[in-house]
Structure formats: C-alpha cells, structure tokens
C-alpha cells in the first residue's frame, strides 16, 4: 500500500484528510511559553482569537526527525511505501527533518517531496497525489508527476490587514499606518517556496481586477482541483469564488481555512486561490 503523509500546514479539514486517505503530522504552535499542537488542541478559530489578543506573534516549531521516524516506521512495518509531501523548505526545517529521518532508517521505501508551497498550495498537491494513488500509479510514478506539478502551482491571496505583516517585520510601521489609512491591501503569492508581496491595491474592485489579470496570465488548468482558502472570511471568499467561477468551468474544488503558519503573517480576513497553471 502507498501511504501519503503531509504536515498540518496543508490546512486540510479532518473530513478532507479522511476522504483523501492521508496522514497529517502536526507542527507545534507557540504563544509565549504555551505550546499547542496545530489542529489538535488549537483549532483555527481559537488560533485567530489568540492572534488578535496576544501582544507577540506566535511561532511554529518544525517537526523533528524522531516524530518522522515514528510515523515512517509504523507504515514500513506493515510493508507500505511512503510518499511525504511537505511544506516548503524555505519556510521551515520540517522537510530537512524528514530527510534526516529517511537517512536514519536507510530505506528506499520513503519518497520525500519538498512542495515549495504551503497551506492551499500544499493541499492542492496532496490532493492530486491521493488521486494518482487511487488511479493505481506506483509511488515512483506519483512522485514524478507531483514533482512536475509543483512547478505549475500558482497561489495568490488578498491580505485584509497590514497589522500582522508589520508585527512580523515584513513591512515598516509607517507603511502599515499609511496603508491602513488609505485602505490599501497587499496581494501576495507563493513563488520559489517563499511568500512574496505581488502588489498592492485599494478597493475590492481593483483587487479583483488584479487577480483576474493574474488568472488570465497564468490560465487555470481545470482538469485539476482548484483550492480556495480564507482566514475566517467566508463571505469574502464567496465573492472571490463567484468571480473566478464566472470565467472558468471549474470541475473540482476544495476550500481550506488558512492555519497558523501563514495565518500568523496575514491575519484574519485573507482570501486566496491555488491552482495548476496550463
């Protein structure tokens, strides 16, 4: 049997995890001196409540090699082959921990993929890997296809507030004050494994025009799933989905709520979409 493993930054719901038949290993979230296990004893709703009230931004700790060894050994003992698709190595040391674990276990039954992505982009790749497994492809065939697809993943999102980008040192306090006063909202993407500011717009009409232009430039390949995401902003996400679905015949889509790793920097109110470009 082929087992697909990922980490909790994929932000897939428990229902989607079961539907896809995958195993999710959680990261740890640290608020001050208090540790929480992502998605286990800290829900997405509770995370954003704490994010708004705590003075300091939380941090996330990478999954350590021992945790991967324990997870890998459980399936190896059953004679399974493992594909681990993990968040970008530019955002966390989690992928490197998996590399260390594989080296310590000395087996060719573990296949590791640095997704170069996170949250909805990672969820997209994990979903496609699950689909390929269910179609009967071998582990090596799945890995080959996901390695190709990960370079075609496009992720774009609108950030509702500059507060958390400023608190995290990604923009200056002065820029945050001026931007907030003018109603300017940054538009971000994940490219080459890191979160980058793609542009800044004022007003929903201009933001959606920016995204429409981005979609025209990169063209959604509708044979693959499209993943939508929000950070406690379902109403705003509905508007974004309607705008995209008016132009594209999307056959398969999934929605995730942006969790702690990206949510720490974008805060509540963000919406985004990830897709495979043609």
Automatic annotation (TrEMBL):
MF term (GO), any: lipid binding
Keyword field: Lipid-binding
Domain of life (superkingdom): Bacteria
Coiled coil spans: none
Name of the protein this chain belongs to: DegV family protein
